[in-house]
Write a structure and sequence with these properties.
Elements: E1 24-35, H1 38-45, H2 54-67, H3 69-72, E2 83-91, E3 95-106, H4 111-129, E4 137-147, E5 154-155
Antiparallel strand pairs: 1-3, 1-4, 2-3, 4-5
Helix pairs in contact: 2-4
Keywords: Lyase, Molybdenum cofactor biosynthesis
Binding site for substrate: 75-77, 112-113
Family: Belongs to the MoaC family.
Length: 157
């Protein structure tokens, strides 16, 4: 399985050995969007959702998820994260944009933690608003930036 680091020569799934990697400052930024009916976004903005402040709860859910990524993704290393920040912003009249920035000083990157934070924050928005809008869509979850480590900097086109 050439090029895939989570498989050995026989094709078995393995946790990558990072013991020989340098400890460096590493940052990952991921983003995604929840697209909904304009009335749903208006209810979020007006704090008219019965379950509470949607954006505040989703922010906390994303932070908590980043810290537990290794429990959710089988081959991720547990990491002592230095920082997790989530920005949830409304765009236009039907979108919540979610951006997660995760930092660590360690031997492996935090891309999965950033992606997990965005995913769980988006799912939380969906969960809190599904009673009024089951047609919401979670879209475009992707890594937009990564720095640190042997592979250097990645910025999404």
């Amino acid at each position: 399985m050439s090029g895939l680091t989570h498989f050995d020569e026989a094709g078995n799934a393995v946790m990558v050995d990072v013991s020989e990697k340098d400890v460096t400052a590493r940052v990952a930024v991921a983003e995604g969007r929840v697209v909904m009916a304009p009335a749903t976004l208006a209810a979020i903005r007006d704090r008219g959702i019965a379950k509470g402040d949607v954006l505040a709860v989703a922010r906390l859910a994303g932070i908590m998820a980043a810290k537990r990524t290794a429990e959710l993704i089988p081959l991720c290393h547990p990491l002592p994260l230095s920082s997790v920040t989530l920005a949830l912003e409304t765009e236009g009249d039907e979108t919540v944009r979610i951006t997660a920035t995760v930092k660590v000083t360690g031997r492996t990157g935090v891309e999965m933690e950033a992606l997990t934070a965005v995913s769980v924050a988006a799912l939380t928005v969906y969960d809190m608003c599904k009673a009024i809008d089951r047609a919401m869509r979670i879209e475009g979850i992707r890594l937009v930036h990564k720095s640190g480590g042997r592979s250097g900097v990645y910025d999404a086109p």
